[in-house]
Fold this protein.
Amino acid sequence: MSEPSVIEENKSHVLHHFIDSDQQFEASKLGMWVFLVTEILFFGGLFAAYIVYRAWYPDLYLQASEELNTFWGAVNTAVLIGSSLTVAMAIRSAQLNQIKGLITNLYITIGLALTFMVIKYFEYAHKFEIGILPGSYYSYEGIAHEKANIFFSIYYMMTGLHGIHVLIGIGLMIWLVVKAKKNVLHSGYYTPVEITGLYWHLVDVIWIFLFPLLYLID
Amino acid sequence: MATEESKANVKRVQVKRFKPEEYPEKHYLNQETGLWAWLTTVDHKKIGLMYLMSVAFFFFIGGMLALLIRTELLTPARTFMDADVYNQVFTLHGAIMIFFFLIPSVPAALGNFILPLQLGAKDVAFPRLNLASFYIYVIGALFTITAIFTGGVDTGWTFYTPYSATTGGSVMMMTMGVFILGFSSILTGLNFIVTIHKLRSPGITWNRLPLNLWGLYATSIIQILATPVLAITLLLLTMERALGIGIFDPALGGDPVLYQHFFWFYSHPAVYIMIVPGFGIISEVISTFSRKVIFGYWAIALSSLAIAFIGFLVWGHHMFTAGQSSLASMVFSFLTFLVGIPTGIKIFNWLATMYRGSIDMKTPMLYAMVFLFLFTIGGFTGIMLGALSVDVHLHDTYYVVAHFHYVMMGGMVMAFLAGLHYWWPKMFGRMYSEFWAKLSCGLVFIGFNMTFLPQFIMGAQGMPRRYFNYIDQFQSFHQFSTLGAYVMGVAFFIMAGYLFHSLRKGKRAAANPWGSRALEWQTSSPAPLHNFEHTPVIINGPYDYHKPMSEFQLGIATPHNDHHADENVSHTESEKEQV
């Protein structure tokens, strides 16, 4: 795993304070893992709020989740899992020095991420139309539970924050495409692809938890 | 030790004596100068100094606010400010001191400066991220300052709901400031963890890691695990104010105690973010100035990690009177007592280190002594507050205020000052005046006790915290306390005076003015731009005071030396000695 690359003797990417390319790669990867831990705790707060309110008002959750569109939620789940696959393929391409494949895979990933956001946009728009707005703007009459607004507050916080993470991921992926086109990335240096991939898997995993917890309860 | 197999793997490393240059012509302070070079530097030492200036600035602001509070409390009724202003002043004092001084003081300011030096690394693992975290801190600070000038905040530093969700002022601006600040803290912690794991010089094994770094390592773990929870809490609170999402506000169907759980899940570990790096500094200082191998190295190292771990399990002791179940309170109370064990282990190990050492009472050691005295009082009163029945009586009284200040100011600030005086020569290459430093240390000690001892008594007699008015029987206590605060104020002005003086006129410091064995003293003062001219190979431990200084040496590694062969390096050396 940590065998030095013999294919290319390009060392321009090694920053001055690292001994060699491997040390730099390992440090970056560990850094990303630590960052993912903080992300889990960040979302963990919301999951805790979800658990507390679900324990207090179990029927609220059953009733309110009826309003969520399970079909489009499932489509989005498939879309995100697919994008996790393509990002893994992008890393593989980078390891094999196939820069064209890397760029193609990144484009597919970006496309899937955008698909996710578009579907999410239509879901939000539909809810806004019928009066399911966040917080005190909530005005929907269709759920016979006085705390219905709280379920949707949690829903909007969780999916909203997740959506922001998807957008950041799209930004990172575009940055990678630019880097790849400049021929900065190669099999000896693909750290940004690797760690963006790690980030993207986390975004995917969080959605995999959000989908059943919000859409599939009954 | 060395088995046959490891002997076969031994790498012959060229080891030659490594003597730092005394009074260097070129060092990090006079290279890459100019305002722009400083603002865009990725050098950990310069970033550390920029943090140091920022935390000193906020310590000054927070300190002045404290003096205003104490002055207002001279009389039982209004002295010179209105109750509303008073509420804002104590809120700001708390928020600024905690979020802008205590949390970044040791890790971000001193830690940034010293951590790569103690590892023999050229920089932290992610220098640009380090610079980014400084600017995130600055942006958070700007938000907070804006909050002060656009209505202020009167919620207390804890921002409890529902009051914080409904009161006027710029609570949102303030919580956003603290939210942003949290990312600075997270990134610093992340950087330190990776640096300690991946950038150790050959020869620094885990059992040769300076205890300061064990402290910073434990702190970083708390930072990355706890701070995100504060971030989400404050985000929810901000949304509560902006949109009325109703998770914490009972008027909208939410639960304010849930907020307290969220808040203290961060803020209790946060007090360990503040104190644990202080423990690290004290270990360094006590060993250096006792000229003795640190007693119980592993006990001290692991107790830092133990505190970090237990610290996550005790947050409920802030809510004994907030309506949590009595079973939960009992469990939290019991767990709180457990924190005393690793803390006690540390205190006893430090005492054992000093026992029969040749103690040199230089200023850093003096601060370490003050730390031991004050922190022990703070710790014991903390155990009292952790006891359920006692806490019901003392909750939200001045007793809590006094306990907190004994731990945070008597513990953490004293450790910070010990570290500042200890590493000052390494930072600036100048010595400060021992006389004025000791005088100021003595005044801080006297002033501190004058300020906070009476508050224990007042609290035990029922004086509630945060009150603007009080009954006449407490007046003499309050006035004595205020007097003490002024004494401390004078002491800090003296400190500022001699430290500034030393920058220009101070005697030039030798590379190793304290005769320490730690790695950061084996390079010149001030440190070179890239810390060490060569990658050092570490042969001796940081506390090897049983070896004479003349035998004490660092090795020089060849370029591309394998970082993972560290143990073999020391074997090589010991074999050489045998031959």
User: Anything to note?
Assistant: Chain B touches chain A through 46 residues (CB under 8 Å). The beta strands of chain B are 536-538, 554-556. Confidence is low (pLDDT under 50) at residues 560-579 of chain B.
